[in-house]
Design goal:
15 strands; binds ligand LJ64HWYM; binds pyridoxal-5'-phosphate; alpha/beta; about 475 residues; 6-stranded mixed beta sheet; 19 helices; Rossmann fold; single chain; 5-stranded parallel beta sheet
Amino acid sequence: MTGYKSTRGGIDGRDFESVLLAGLAEDGGLFVPAAWPRFSAADLRRMRAMTYPELAAEVLAPFTEGCFTRADLLEMASAVYGRFDHPAVAPLKQLDTDLWLLELFHGPTLAFKDFAMQLLAEMFDRVLTRRGETITIVGATSGDTGAAAVQAFAGKSQVRVAMLHPEGRISPVQRRQMTTILADNVLNIALAGTFDDCQDLVKAMFADQPFRTRINMSAVNSINWARIAAQSVYYFWAALRLGAPDRPSAFCVPTGNFGNVYAGWAARQMGLPIEQLTVATNANDILARFFEGGVYAKDGVVPTMSPSMDIQVASNFERLLLDLEGNDAGGVRRRMASFAQSGEFEVDHGSLERVSTFMKGGSASERATAAMIANTHERTGELVDPHTAVALHVAELHMPPKGVPMISLSTAHPAKFPDAVATASGIHPALPPRYAHLMDLPESTVTAGNDLREVETLITERFSIS
Ligand SMILES: Cc1ncc(COP(=O)(O)O)c(C=O)c1O
Ligand SMILES: N[C@@H](CCOP(=O)(O)O)C(=O)O
């Protein structure tokens, strides 16, 4: 059975159910599997014939042993991915000889977050019913996680959701996807600050043990291991469609919190032949700079047309760091302490060289992003959102050797960012009919300062938690 440990070394031997419920480890670290399950080439060949739900059950089964059986997973995944708008769930489109787009925006809230969030909602339902417990999910969003979480958990009797977003820094469509769902178990908080401030507050609430216990706090950001596991499935799906395990593939991933690209790293650890993972950032380029020089140094967050990636502190980077440090949790603790104190740390040259053999980084300026939206439409007829355009720009800079397909992840529907897309391409992307009235519906949000006590009080008062 796969057991879980914390990246900071304070916890070992946890099972999936407690990792799912806890979200963040009690020592401040992130949960990772103590050992990676491995799929052989024969296993991968067998997976080629599977539907998306079957594949999800196959990939996730080793991670959920003791909590969910393969049959449970298949039941949940069939329900979840049956709700997606596209029959292929995650369709692949060829843009050029070796360049492909993996569309991950056909779920209920039009972004890749639905892949994991919808499944997490099913998992929480079953576990909480079994245990007779109620939890409070506290999350931070730069737009898409919040929309996906509110949609997935609204109206659930054993879950309350408090979602913090940076006021004025997400698109109106993203905001309205959260704030127009007027459910008693949902609290939207518009925070005076950046996404990083929101995420810091969530971590501070986790560190406030009495508060954490009082509200029975949980997480659905990608700090929760279940998010990463569920997101790794579409890497298998895409690579298998393009010839894995007999042909390697490369991925380019628009990146902010490093969850999505870490899910690709997880797929590679499980035996999927991924030759290259490219980390694409916008002007908030802490990760791109890391891959250039091995220094991870925080800078101010600047607003861009790809707001979901306006992030400087990439939570999941800590998971990769543990692998780079050769599983030395002490090294992770020291680096994270240095980061907390001075806003930076450095890895040694050997680690950087090792990771650079298969991980590349790059960033796209606002001008390059807009040009990529326009060019892609002109060349291929595809209208892409700004996050997808960032990835396509960086993919062009780091194309793998000829014959290896580069799969660039398309993480959001262009209609979530209509102004940026229209300015770049001259075309106004339309929302699907089910969102026809989104811009007319009443909203519910409270505002808050960047203050731990203020936000904690908002949460306990709103949900009448004594
Ligand atoms: C549309 C979109 N693209 C890319 C990202 C970046 O993904 P990650 O935070 O997993 O790096 C996000 C935010 O998570 C997003 O919402
Ligand atoms: N871009 C994200 C930020 C949070 O990412 P997560 O994957 O850790 O939940 C968003 O859209 O909210």
